[in-house]
Design goal:
Helix content of chain A: 10-25%
Radius of gyration of chain A: 21 Å
Number of domains of chain A: 2
Protein name (chains A, B): Peptidyl-prolyl cis-trans isomerase
Number of strands of chain A: 19
GO molecular function (chains A, B): peptidyl-prolyl cis-trans isomerase activity
Number of helices of chain A: 6
Largest sheet of chain A: 8 strands, antiparallel, barrel
Shape of chain A: globular
Keywords (chains A, B): Isomerase
Distance between the termini of chain A: 14 Å
CATH architecture of the largest domain in chain A: Beta Barrel
Oligomer: homodimer
Strand order of the largest sheet of chain A: 2-3-16-14-15-5-4-17
Order of helices and strands of chain A: HHHEEEHEEEEEEEEEEEEEHEEHE
Largest interface: A-B, 90 and 90 residues
CATH class of the largest domain in chain A: Mainly Beta
CATH superfamily of the largest domain in chain A: Cyclophilin-like
CATH topology of the largest domain in chain A: Cyclophilin
Chain lengths: 347, 347
């Protein structure tokens, strides 16, 4: 997934094997040693397959997006499924690329045809109120925060706890803690509770959860508030996680294969990084749900369960690298650097 | 610098003007309103100008790197200046690109010529002990941390303070606080102090400072410890800040112009993302210190003083966006999203 930073003179030395085989010390080693029971198949209904025209060398370009599961960003993912089934994006293009920011696609900016393409039937309304959801919907069981990792079983356990000695620091300046919903990263704002002797805690302000902007996150472009976008125009992050967008725009998923096909596109030179000529656009051949593809064409992928023992160890190892290359353990990590491992079902 | 995420239908609406002119509410507005006295010229000796061969369309590609100033990463930047003056990189190439990780250049991986190019004379030894420096050398005056922003005048003031109400959260899971040294981001580990009545505080453990890995940071590739690299092989970050590398490798500066020429290079398909064929390499025409270029060819750039009132306001506005596009203020920010504004002296 990542690479090391060996000088070229060392690249021919047999160091790669250590990275993979050192089960106890490297994130890759922990993932490789994870038990098969700790992996979860991604439902075909949650995979969006975007095929771009071949590149200049004639190589195919396929991008696979894992959609946020219910109840996160629900209206937008419903619309995205409707648009994929209507083949709505077919023939549209990637029309914008801004360095260390996003690549954006959909209707585009065609000076000869400024009218947006009409949406298919069945599009549901969206609301900025749904950028976050209440935790009582129950999507998370494990929290990473300033006090390390904690298992939570009920809202009453979400009250702040003391920091354990030597627990890694997962503090997040953008939230109280982070977690994952079926393999996709979210931030958490802890609610408030009133505790009386002998009584169950009473929630006075609900804990809230929202999907976050990391590298490869996919979001819904929109106009000014109260518009919240339909899902017709999407962007993928190609730089440092722009977390200030969290709670201000709908995040609908994450590119889990092929983000490099977007990241290496030339940056746009027009206003907002929009391409100035049609020739710069990258045409979209098709966007389909994997569940609508013939069985043999479906990507079949799984992610490491973020509530598993191996994922907990994986996060701890990321926060405290101690293999041959690392001399000083960071002592912590941020949500965008604790990326959920994804692999093919065949692997 | 950044862009907005308006849907395409809004891109033709006159919204761009607000982004720039809303002085009080947007980072760009604050920067534009900064007093000329708040800008600092970057010395020509601190600018490394890297010229790549023209791209496929024949357009020139120039990358400008701002080198870390003394006393940070001192031995490596000294070597880099020596190599630039010896024209050592001329004719070498970019030989590696890994998505969401780095682009790397220098000696390369030439299967026909596996011997590294000999270094010029005058290369000084480097040591991993110098990945961090003691704060008493005095490079910083302002700290951003979990308790907001603080001015510091002496070591005794670095002890933890109470969080001010409503101060933005700049907490960093990788350090106690962050700051900047002449426009380049660093992390800070606060030292320990013994305080006795009526006596000056006594430092028992020094505060330490190190340069951090953000998007566009430039570091020194190395072999396994205790090797610390010479500076001959460099990489630039092209993804989410890989902060776990901090204190494990020397950071020598930041790309402040032209990072997109590196970020859009095709990813390498060989081991560690090294290009498998010579044709994939991007040749380096020359690497020069701006101070060694003819006066009229020098880039002349300045950065916003990070101890200035405008930079403090800029960081606060980033942490609490409240312009028309943003509905919910983040309440905090991480060091890699508080990027130091740089502009041409002519602007």
């Amino acid at each position: 997934m990542l690479g090391t930073l060996f000088a070229a003179s060392a690249l021919t030395a047999p160091l790669a094997a250590q990275e993979v085989e050192d089960v106890a010390l490297t994130p890759g080693g922990v993932v490789k040693a994870a038990d098969p029971s700790e992996w979860r198949d991604i439902p075909a209904e949650d995979l969006l397959v975007m095929t771009l025209t071949p590149d200049a060398a004639g190589k195919t370009r396929e991008v696979v997006i894992q959609l946020m599961p219910e109840p996160v960003s629900s209206a937008w993912t419903q619309n995205i499924r409707t648009m994929a089934r209507a083949h709505w994006w077919d023939g549209l293009s990637i029309y914008r690329s801004v360095d260390n920011w996003v690549v954006q696609w959909g209707n585009g900016e065609d000076p000869e045809n400024p009218e947006p393409k009409p949406l298919p039937g069945g599009i549901v309304p969206t609301s900025e109120d749904a950028y976050t959801i209440a935790w009582q919907d129950g999507p998370i069981r494990t929290l990473w925060g300033a006090r390390g990792r904690r298992e939570v079983e009920a809202s009453s356990q979400l009250a702040p706890a003391r920091k354990r000695d030597n627990s890694p620091d997962f503090s997040d300046p953008y939230s109280d803690a982070f977690s994952y919903v079926r393999g996709l990263p979210v931030a958490v704002e802890l609610g408030s509770y009133e505790v009386s002797d002998g009584k169950a805690p009473v929630m006075t302000r609900p804990t809230r959860v929202w999907p976050v902007h990391c590298y490869a996150s996919v979001g819904v472009a929109r106009d000014l508030s109260p518009d919240a976008g339909t899902g017709a125009e999407l962007y993928a992050v190609i730089g440092h996680g722009p977390r200030q967008l969290d709670r201000n725009i709908a995040v609908v998923g994450k590119v889990i294969e092929g983000i490099e096909h977007m990241a290496i596109l030339p940056r746009g030179t027009g206003e907002y990084g929009v391409y100035e000529t049609e020739a710069e656009h990258t045409p979209i051949v098709s966007v389909r749900l994997a569940s609508d593809l013939p069985e043999q064409e479906r990507p079949r992928l799984r992610y490491l369960d973020t509530d598993s023992a191996s994922f907990a160890k994986y996060a701890d190892v990321i926060a405290n690298r101690s293999d041959d290359f690392y001399k000083v353990a960071a002592g912590g990590a941020d949500v965008c650097n604790v990326r959920v491992p994804v692999k093919s079902v065949e692997d």
